Each structure stands twice: as C-alpha cells, then as structure tokens.
Amino acid sequence: MTSKTDVRRYPGLGLFSIAFFAYLYLPIAVVVFYSFNANRIVSNWGGFSLHWYGEALSNPNLVSAVKISLIVAIVATIASTLIALAAAMVLVRGKTVRYRRTSETIVNLPLLLPEIVVAVAVLLLFSEVGLVNGMAKLMIAHTTFCIPFAFLPIRARLQGMDLDLEEAARDLYATEWVAFRRVTLPLILPGVFAGGMLAFVISMDDFITSNLLNSGGGTTLPVYIFSLIKQGVSPQLNAISTLIMAASVLLATLAFLLQRKS
To answer: Which of 176, 193, 199, 236, CA to CA, is 20 to 30 A from 251?
Structure first.
C-alpha cells in the first residue's frame, strides 16, 4: 500500500499558499470593505454606512440591467442545457453516429474559438438577417456559447454511467422514452444540473458578446458596470460588486448542497 504524502511537510509550501490566497482574495476583501464607506471618495474612509447599498438597489438602470441579465441567462441556460443533453445522448449513446469526433468538435467549437470571434460572427449574422431586437439577439448568442459548457459535464456523466441499468429497463419492456425518463435522466441529473449551473454563470458573466450586441434595450449587468467604471470608481460600484459576489456565493452554496443531497 502506498502511504499518503503530507504536503505540509514541503518547505515553503505553507508560505506560498498564504501568499497565493492573499493575492487572490485580498482585492475582493478591499472591494467589500470600501462598499461600506460613507465617503464618496473610495480611498478615504469616512465611517461605516449602508448608504451606497440603498443607492444601488434604488437605481432603476441597475435594476433593469439585472432583470435583463437574469432573463437572458435563464433562457440561455434552459435552451443550451436541453440542446447539450440531446447532443450528449446522440454522441454517447448513439450506435450509428458517423463522424462522432467531428460532431463533438462542432458542438465544442464556441469553447475553442476566442469569444471576440464568436461575438463578431454573431453580430454579422444578425446584421445580415435584419434582427434588431436586443433581447432576442442576446438570448440566441448566449445560448450558442453556453452549449459546450453544458455539454461537457453531461457527456462525462453519461460516459461514466453503467449501461446495464438501461439494458435492464429495456429487458423489462420499457420504451426508450420510459427508460430515459425513469433510469437515465435521474442518474445523469447531477451532470445536467452542473452543466446548467455553468451555463447560467457564463451567461451572467459574459461581457464581450453582450457589449457588441448592446442595442434595443439589451444592456446586461456586466455592460452596465463597465459603463460605471468609465465614469470612475465609486462606493456604489463597490456595493454592486459586493451584492453580485454575495449572490454568487449563495448560488454556489445552494448548488453544492443540492448536489450533495442528490
């Protein structure tokens, strides 16, 4: 039997770990700290205050950007997860699929290409077809580049699933749909959930594509935050960032608890 190695015994590794996590999280802590600054000048501490949180939550432009981001992310998550699930079922379970590797490459192509290339291509396509609705453009574009992020966890879950369970269901005269709904889907549900969560986070976080397609009332939260940065850093921007981080931590914790329960 091989004994486990205690990594803490390596000289300097503890100090390196502390420096690494400090470099990673100290800037975030600074943003959170100055979000409670009563002074309008960020670098000058003027006392503890929740004023900027009230300003952020009462900002109609911010609320509108959050609503647009949530609507686009929810639609893109549902659409991309369903498409990714169908693609994974065909590519992993399909027995007569030709050019399997080529098909997987095409599905993962938005992940392989630089996002600016995909954004420009989508922008040119919408210009050619005459699509001017900002929300529709964002939903289609976000669905496109979210598909590979949802596809990879689902495919991995399907590949690790025992085929004997599906074959047993078919031996008991279950149809393909019943076997999928009662056996396959419950077993791969953690992968589907993980893929959906990845797609949602990627959609909410996207800036490049959303910025290029920013027209017709389609201003998302990252694009709005970027417009605030161009005007200068303010405690309100720190408050918005802190609220986003709090929502992300809450969502990640909920996902972890649900996956652990399942």
So the answer is: 236
Mean pLDDT of 159-180: 78
For residue 87, CA distances in Å to 69, 111, 177 come to 26, 15, 16
* Whether the predicted model's global pTM rises above the 0.70 cut: yes
The two most distant CA atoms of the chain are separated, in Å, by 73
Among the listed residues 202, 185, 210, 155, the one whose alpha carbon sits nearest the alpha carbon of residue 262: 185
Q: Rg of the chain's alpha carbons, rounded to an integer?
A: 23
Task: Name every residue whose Cβ is closer than 8 Å to that of residue 64 and which is 6 or more positions away in sequence.
Answer: 219
- Selection from 27-36, 130-139, 145-154, 232-241 with the highest mean pLDDT: 145-154
Q: Which long-range contacts (CB under 8 A, 24 or more apart) does 223-228 make?
A: 223/65, 224/61, 224/62, 224/65
- Express each pLDDT in 203-257 by its tens digit: 888 888 888 887 766 788 888 888 877 777 677 788 888 888 887 788 777 767 7
CA–CA distance, 233 with 228 (Å, rounded to integer): 7
Among candidate residues 202, 96, 95, the one with its CA nearest the CA of residue 151? 202
The string over 109-147, giving b where at least 16 C-beta atoms fall within 10 Å of a residue's C-beta and e elsewhere, is ebbeeeeeebbeebbeebeeeeeeebebbbbbbbbbbbb
| Main-chain phi, psi angles of 37, to 5 degrees | -80, 130
DSSP string, 152-202: HHHHHHHHTS-HHHHHHHHHTT--HHHHIIIIIHHHHHHHHHHHHHHHHHH
